[in-house]
Amino acid sequence: MKAPPFRYARPQTLDAALRLLADEGAGARLIAGGQSLVPALNMRLLEPTLLIDINGLAELTGIAETASGIRVGALTRHAALGASAIVARRTPLLAAAVPFIAHEAIRNRGTFGGSLAQADPAAELPACAVALGARLEIAGPGGRRRVAAHDFFRGVYETALGRDEILVAAEIPAQPGATLFLELARRQGDYAIAGLAGWAALDRSRITDARLVFFGTDIRAVEARAASAALATSLDAAATALDRDLAPVADLNASAAMKRHLARVLLRRACAAAVTHAA
Ligand SMILES: Cc1cc2nc3c(=O)[nH]c(=O)nc-3n(C[C@H](O)[C@H](O)[C@H](O)COP(=O)(O)OP(=O)(O)OC[C@H]3O[C@@H](n4cnc5c(N)ncnc54)[C@H](O)[C@@H]3O)c2cc1C
């Protein structure tokens, strides 16, 4: 199918983009990489009256090292994230996740901000943002506000972003431990049936602190706090505690019970690998 008709604007400043959003109201849609939006238009799942192309907004670009970690502009392409030496050094979890996002052509166009704003529960980058404790900078008609990634994702394709707001950047603290990243998908590059993004701090072969975030299982990326705390006891205890963290939802790929099982498998594999590596 072809996209429905729409008007198109390419503002050059954030203020101009915000004005266009406010003036057009409910019919306006931002377009970044277009890798989720264009398929939705072509399938006529959306019928915007105005597409606002944000690719000209210089303020949304770039990856910079900060005192506490990194700042990633919303327009950063997945491929740039994966190739960045700053990302590899400060937040290696993001670098580990990128190769699992779709395939090269999509990674060359798709953006970090687009992935967060899309909030697909099976997407890799929202889970990484939660695992790393990212704070998201959002611009709107009333000025700027910051929202913790943990509070940003609300449900399937649902976020804390208002209709008249633009995600500008993410401030991400430096990763405090070893990378934990695993996902199970039907084919390399497909969305995850179940995935785990996180980090673990180790003292020799003992996990002393960890953050585990599961994606593809629930209606959004879920931080598994009970399982993380139980890791201090044993892997078995953590796998059992995971039941208190997750409320898996069946989809075309797997039942809720299967997703729960896969999440336990991922937890055991990722943590065992981190311990073996440390030893
Ligand atoms: C075949 C295929 C396979 C894919 N596989 C995966 C996968 O395995 N894992 C994965 O994570 N993703 C996957 N994707 C999606 C891809 O990662 C997209 O790039 C990403 O989800 C959206 O980024 P985008 O820049 O393309 O956003 P767009 O498609 O341009 O926009 C997506 C949504 O976000 C909004 N938006 C975009 N930028 C902003 C902003 N700065 N502020 C506010 N709202 C904004 C748009 O209005 C729109 O509603 C796949 C896509 C395709 C086509």
For the residues shown, what is the average pLDDT? 96
Q: Largest sheet, if any?
A: 5 strands, antiparallel
CATH class of the largest domain: Alpha Beta
Listed once per kind, the bound small molecules are: flavin-adenine dinucleotide
Reading side by side through the largest sheet, how are the strands ordered?
4-5-10-6-7
How far the N terminus sits from the C terminus, by CA atoms, comes to 55 Å
Tally of separate helices? 12
Strand tally is: 14
- Provide the CATH topology of the largest domain: Uridine Diphospho-n-acetylenolpyruvylglucosamine Reductase, domain 3
Q: Which percent band covers the strand fraction?
A: 25-35%
Structural class: alpha+beta
Radius of gyration: 19 Å
Stretches where pLDDT is under 50 for at least 5 consecutive residues are none
Order of helices and strands: EHEHEEEHHHHHHEEHEEEEEEEHHH
Domain tally? 3
Helix content: 25-40%
